[in-house]
Amino acid sequence: MASGSALKLLRPSLLALGALALTAGACSTSPRSPSATSSPTTSTTHPPRAGSVNLGFAGSTQLLNEQKIGPAFTAATGYAYQGQGGGAAAVAQFIKSGQYASTVFESIGGGPIGILEPSFTHYYVEFASSPLVIAYNPSGPFGSRLAAIAEGKKPIADLFTTMATNGFKLGRTDPNVDPQGQGFLLMVALAESQLHVSDTTVKALLANSQTFAETGLESVLQSGQLDAASAYLPQAVQMHLPYISLPNSINLGNPKDAARYATASITLTTPAGKVVTGTPLTLDVTTIDQPGESEVDKAASDAFVTYMLSPAGLAAYRAAGYTILTPTLYGSRSGIASSILSEVHAFVPGPAASPTARSTAG
Predict the structure, then answer these.
(1) In this structure, are 16 and 142 located in the same domain?
(2) What is d(CA 338, CA 256) in angstroms, rounded to the nearest whole number?
(3) Cβ-based neighbour number of residue 203 at 10 Å
(4) pLDDT digits over 89-122, tens only?
(5) Total structural domains within the chain
(6) Domain of 191?
(7) Among 71, 119, 289, 309, which is least packed, fewest CB within 10 Å?
(8) CB burial string 133-171: b at 16+ within 10 A, e below
(9) Is residue 347 part of a domain?
């Protein structure tokens, strides 16, 4: 569904969001949608053992978790794995309401994890970053123009004027439920201030955009229904999508540029008036305290996070296109498994989703 009107940019780079709706199908707010849920992995090299992990994940990590991390974890430990995902903030709300029985939550940014504090968790570990890119359809009417930008034959500013062209079909996710949707709008605001993209261009490209569930957006692009779509770099790498790299100053992928990102902010419609400030798009994980969780399942959850942060786990994330960061614990050390703590190399005490935690609210 196309956005009904362009979003007005306010200085400094404040985007006031109009009403936004997810398109029908593959809705990230539908609990346990078939596309986002896997059956427990049973093939192992380690003898099977009692206990299973139930991972709730940001939709952008679906391919990696379902095809690589989950099976490799089961092979290495013998614990069973199952997963379900969608927009990170929506997944957090499903966990909070009991619709998802996740025992581990992997989020883009710490903000969605903050939704679960203090009842379900009191910490998270930041271990990678996920820069934004623009994936594109090389066979579409704008394919050659976008390819020239991707190859550096045309300036990056041409990307924004191209996306603002009448008839251009641009996909993004809903910022009210998904950090990628927030990130895209923050990126556009940063492009206005950092790259001097005009307000007229910004309004036009936003008018050309449609919102989709994160777990389905790139598939819609691959089907040829869109000319381009927002994406995380790892999504483009794993799905073999042509993409245009964005400068560090606007791609929200470099923690060293956190102060620059913080100059942009957007206002959500759900909850009404909530302001989200630009922060690095990091990959964060925490264990979830589920009522009645068995000791064997708790052990499996601790083992899963330990595996993610291990050299083997981080190598898989690096190969998938993520930028590996120093594993840093935000929140409290209390009650965290020693195996997880052994993989952590830095510690920031205090509330896990505090502003110092560089969290992306969601």
Answers:
(1) yes
(2) 30
(3) 16
(4) 899 999 999 999 999 999 999 989 999 999 999 9
(5) 2
(6) 9-27+133-272
(7) 119
(8) bbbbbeebebeebbeebbeeeeebeebbbbbbeeebbbb
(9) yes
Question: Quick check: is 14 in a domain?
Answer: yes
Confidence band of 213 (pLDDT split at 50, 70, 90): confident
- Confidence class of residue 87 from pLDDT cuts 50, 70 and 90? confident
Residues 137 and 197 grouped into a single domain: yes
Inter-residue contact 275 to 15 (CB < 8 Å) = no
Alpha carbon 14 to its chain centroid, in Å, reads 21
Closest CA to 64 of 229, 228, 285: 285
The two structure tokens encoding residue 286: 């925490």
Q: What is the pTM of this model?
A: 0.78
Q: How far apart are CA 288 and CA 92, in angstroms?
A: 10
| 3-class DSSP string for the chain | CECCCCCCEECCCEEECCCCCCCCCCCCCCCCCHHHECCCCCCCCCCCCCCEEEEEEEHHHHHHHHHHHHHHHHHHHCCEEEEEEECHHHHHHHHHHCCCCCCEEEEECCHHHHCCCCCCCCEEEEEEECCEEEEECCCCCCHHHHHHHHCCCCCCHHHHHHHCCCCCCEEEECCCCCHHHHHHHHHHHHHHHHCCCCHHHHHHHHHCEEEECHHHHHHHHHCCCCCEEEEEHHHHHHCCCCEEECCHHHHCCCHHHHHHHCCCEEEEECCEEEEEECCCCEEEEEECCCCCCCHHHHHHHHHHHHHHHCHHHHHHHHHCCCEEEEEEEEECCCCCCHHHHCCCCEEEECCCCCHHHCCCCC
Residues 87 and 154 in one domain: no
Evaluate whether 214 touches 173 at the Cβ level (below 8 Å): yes
